[in-house]
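REVIEWER CHECKLIST
Item 1: Sequence provided? yes
Item 2: Single chain? yes
Item 3: Sequence as submitted:
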Amino acid sequence: MRRIRTWNSLVAWAFPFRAVGVCILFLLGFPGAYGQSPAQIQVWDWIGLTSLQSANTLKGTQLSNTGSVQQSVMEFLLAHNPCLRDDPRTGLVLKSYRHSPVGEHFCYRQTFMGREIYGTEFKVNLLPNTRTIGTHYFFGLATSHWPGSMFELAPPPPSPNARPTVLYHHGQPYAAWLYEIHDELQNDHRQVIQAFDGPAFESNLLRYRRGGPRDTTVWVSVFNPDPLSTARTMYGGAYVNNNDRDTQALGQERQFLPVSMKYLSDSIWAENKYLKLVTEETDQHIPWGRNDTFDVSRSHPWFEHLMALYHLSQFRAHIRSLGFTQLMDYQITVRPRAFVSDNSNFSRLFDADGKGRLNYGYSVDKIPHVDDAEDADVLIHEYGHATSYHANLNDADGAGRKALDEGLCDYLAASYSHSLSDYRSDYVYSWDGHNEFWEGRACNTSKTVLDYNASKTYHENGEIFSSALYDIMLQIGRRATDAALLGSLYSYADRMPFSDGALLFLETASLILRESEVHAACSVFAEYGFVPQDYCNNSIFEDPIQVPYSIDHTAFAQHGIVQIAFGHAFTGTIQLVALSGQVLMTEKLEGALSFSSMSHVAAGPYALVISNYQIRHTAKLIR
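Item 4: Structure as written out by the authors:
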């Protein structure tokens, strides 16, 4: 949310206990009772809660090669978490699984006698095409604090989507219902955990900014990315909102650009494979026609629809071009004129495998702000929240985790605008903000991690991360920066420390970018205080597995030849893998001292996987 909300009460505790290792009990403290109306349920949040271990403490740990990958991950979790072994009533349930170009990502929630314990999470990220630990997060509950017997559920559940869970409050366990409320008309999206005869808590689900038919190519009139960036001017004079009315100056900043739309029954509709536009206005409908040009002015209600369809389609194509073909691969519902408000949001769908909706505010004469979907920055920021959620299914719990999400979404918006116009592109929301209606935000802060404070807004803290990412983009380019950032999203966990956003970015970058690009990114993060300078000199390039071989990187870069010299006779398998995870080449060797093979691959990053019964190692190759 772009503006600061005033909560009725906002408290969170971390309760110490006797468990060995990294098991942590998170407690929330608010009074309440089962059966309260939502208005009486106080707001909860997580603040400043972190793992007792660094996320990469166990990096390089080799998992068992017997059984499935999921079985070996479970063995790893049991070996390193006594709280999962001390009581036969304990268990784990898989919350989410993702396969990405940068690895495999498992997320579990702890259970008590088959019922999920709210707030627990065990996240394991494996390096690509290996059974090797990359990063991890353990947030578990010590069995010494468990109840002596199971609870009885009290029917009926308060919502059709409710599911049973266990809630801890001041060390006391409660049987509870976990459910979500979605009221599109009221723009009301909340998660509620409600105990029987005990406390109740509520979290707003909105990710606020700053807050078989054929397709055909259609030309649409849009701002690209906004009228101020293309006119290379600041808000004022002829370039003001003018109550959403047309002016000659603003009209001249429209551009006609191509976008894919659905063609059905001799008509063209503003919809495609990845975007479905919806209108809530009874006197309006989504854009449609029978010719290939949609020429509307910015005062027409269709203008925001065309803006949303064009820019979100462009950004989705950008994600795909980076190799993330399974990220945002569903048709997301978009409401370009969702409600009369100078605010927008992403609202998730409950139990829908990371899917959700995008909602954008618009103006009327009594509330004369810039319509949110008229600014590409707003469109991309909210789509960034949807992308983050689809990659990791996090609840975005914790002040640090929420600040990271706001920061990375601001960066994605600013870098998208920068790819279209370099005029003040570090000022996020160039048209919608930085004016008489709202102050906007920027990716040019002088703050560092030392200025981070959990009592500040997520957006204030997020500017530190967005500014670091923006500076990295200026040094190594948008494609490299976005590839590392999007890849890192799969490894995110709830309540992860704020500084770990840089750590996971660098972990991913070390797999897919050139060494010079990783060093440049690390140096920027060091300037902002995310990592110490010696981390850039050593840690990100440490090889956790020593294998006696050498690769001719020059031969691959110049000619596409995979060439390896082994330190001793090698028996095993060689694989060349694309960033998307597609295996391009597989060769089996028997007692070989060298290997050479021509590969006809395009320019870009690849993984070379060398494995046998003892080792499985991945090296990065750049064509």
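Item 5: Key structural point noted by reviewer: The first strand starts at residue 13 and ends at 15.
Item 6: Recommendation: ____
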